[in-house]
Amino acid sequence: GTIYGLDANYYNSETIESGMGYWVRATEDGEITISSGVSAKQVSFVNRVEDANSITFSSERYTTELYFGVEIPAEEILSYSLPPMFPQMDFDVRFSGDMKVVPESGEIEVLNQSETLTIEYDIMIDAGDKMEWVLSSESGDKFVLEGTGEITVPSEQKFVLSRIAVIPETFTLHQNFPNPFNPITTLSYDLPKDSDVRLAIFDMLGNEVATLV
């Protein structure tokens, strides 16, 4: 998965053609010998992004897919790296550090010659309780990524993908759970901004029994 060809933008090459140049990820200096009629030894490869969240960036002619929401073992991370970007390319999208996958959040670098970008997303892994996946543009627009969807935006040089806590819109004290209980229950509340909190328990006659927080 780390042999790339270049045709205005990078692509994963399934074949090596005579006279063409390719980018190959290696961890040390070495030599590659290609002989006709000889079977090459193949190393088994587990695709760690097969069930990951995906976000696809498209211009008028080119498309690049990135992944997030999964952990990649340290010894395999270079299998998800990309060749270096250079200004003469027509189109390129990647996470900073020349990666095509991040566990949770990362800056997305864009090289695009057209005026707009079409962004498609497919969220297979939920962000978690009271969390959400958010894509922020350099101009300040924010898009919550849920389920599947498509958005078209003016072309930007940078986006930021984040897994962030959902900020409540109003103060809310939720019903305790479980109720009735014996001997433990949980009390939850939402705050729309940082605030000092006093949480007290009263009996049916209005007498304060305890101050919890």
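Second entry:
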Amino acid sequence: CVFEVSFLEQVSDLVDDKSSEIVLYGSSSRSMDAVSAAEKLRRAGYENVSILSGGLETWRASGYELDGDHPDMADPETLLQLDDGTYTVDIDQSLIEWSGRNPNTKHYGTVGLTRGQVEVNSSNISGVFEIDMNSIDNTNLKGDELHSVLISHLKSDDFFFIAMFPQATLTINKGLPVRKPYLSAPNYRFDATLEIRGVKAELPFEATVTKTEEGGLAAEAHFDIDRTQWEVIYGSTR
């Protein structure tokens, strides 16, 4: 595997003559594994390196057999297929990481979940996540006397008014797979509603969803929000 740190050492153990013919194969024409391997090997002085055009996907489509220890093992180019059912969020394994910024500074930290549940029905994902705003914490000021000042400010009515609104809610109204939901890229598009300080606003985003070995789901998403849409106006002209 080209993405292992010991890749060049592994190849050296297999091929002691750098003029030997080496044929590299990836999972498909979309993946970069064989291309990356060829670049590394050529930089390392290997003189006769080729790439199997189309990778294993084209090899299979051409009717050729595969051999090896795990010829049918799923790879990053496998399409996601979800099982119908109800999934309860593991709050101990789930986390929201936040970053707040303006032209002069940046702070980042975490906030936890109270509970959550999603349902999968014919590939459509819906559900609700309840966010514990009292758990909001800052990471970059740990050990600084300003750490507690920032947390208190975030909890105040200047920002999230946690005394009045201790919980935020993310409701997944609809989540559908993209046309080709590969495991190694954002494969779902969600229409969601985020409620903060009692104010609701629409929040569309993409996420990468995978299945765990235990039969559960794992998901990751990244998105920006404009806090003024939830009436968090502090320091803003909007």
